[in-house]
Amino acid sequence: MKRIVLFLATNVAVILVLSIILKVLGLDKAGYAGAGYGELLVFSAVVGFTGAIISLLMSKPMAKWSTGAQVITQPSNEVEAWLVSTVQRLAQKAGIGMPEVAIYDGEPNAFATGAFKNSSLVAVSTGLLQSMNKEEVEAVLAHEVAHVANGDMVTLTLIQGVVNTFVIFLSRIIGSIVDRAVFKSERGNGPGYFITVIVLQIVLGFLASMIVAWFSRRREFRADAGSAQYVGSPSPMVNALRRLGGVEPGQLPEAMKAFGITDRPGWMGLFSSHPPIEARIAALQNTR
């Protein structure tokens, strides 16, 4: 139920903000009737980036609410005190502001999120804390801190915005061509335009998700390397990955999967946000 409410709330927010921006810029009709290429490109960029940016800005409260993560404001036991002090030390090494530290109930996993490097969130699951020793947990925390230091949340948002822009732009350009060539529409947009746009947005969106997933997998290798740098050795992260390879990763909400420590592989690996654990271990071992 939480995920449904969150999905609806996010989309309502996107639609409202998008409507206001398009109206203010005078682009509210640009996506439908005979706009020039320049105007259509601006329209596509506004539509393409708005949802991605709003999701980024809402990422911290969304993550807390959807996972039930409890931020440690005042450590109540030794484990919480160790988590906070470890993240603080890693954040200082990475040169970023102290992230909020949270714990949530679930199978082994962890994630980092937030729109800004100096105001981020790092969360670990109870399953991860129970299944790993302190050295391995520290390596996972260092991996998540590296995501923040590398600006991965912003980078993925920008990539998503760019591919969204081209999906919207190309689908409308091709839709206009098909409408005039096949349906012989002379004024405005005929049925061929709308049918083609809908079909192409699905097909191109499908292909675009492969591009985003590819970038996501690349940044995982960088975060693993960052973990090795911050803890002083690749061995703890290698051990943590080996341990994760032997368990089912905890499911994160769809919007948070790219920011977790691991994920189930996608079809042929093309849609997975994370590389195979074996490939990550091999890359780390090559840094020795």
Characterize the structure shown.
With 288 residues, this protein is of the alpha+beta class. It has one domain. It has 10 helices and 4 strands. The chain has a 4-stranded mixed beta sheet with strand order 1-2-4-3, sandwiched between helices. The chain is elongated, with a radius of gyration of 22 Å. The model has no long low-confidence stretch (mean pLDDT 84).
Straight-line distance between termini: 46 Å
Overall pLDDT confidence: 84
Report the principal-axis shape.
elongated
Write down the Rg.
22 Å
Strand order of the largest sheet: 1-2-4-3
Q: What oligomeric state is this?
A: single chain
Q: Proportion of β residues? A: 5-15%
Overall structural class, as computed from helix and strand content, comes to: alpha+beta
Low-confidence stretches: none
Q: How many alpha or pi helices?
A: 10
* SSE topology string: HHHEHEEEHHHHHH
- Based on DSSP secondary structure assignment, what is the total number of beta strands? 4
Share in helix? 55-70%
Domain tally: 1
Largest sheet: 4 strands, mixed
Annotate the secondary structure layout:
Blueprint (H helix, E strand, L loop, with lengths): L1 H23 L12 H21 L1 H9 L2 E2 L6 H17 L5 E5 L5 E7 L2 E7 H6 L2 H16 L2 H30 L9 H41 L3 H11 L31 H9 L3
Parallel strand pairs: 2-4
Antiparallel strand pairs: 1-2, 3-4
Question: What key attributes describe this structure?
Answer:
4-stranded mixed beta sheet; alpha+beta; 288 residues; single chain; 4 strands; 10 helices
Summarize the structure.
By secondary structure, the chain is α+β, with helices and mostly antiparallel strands.
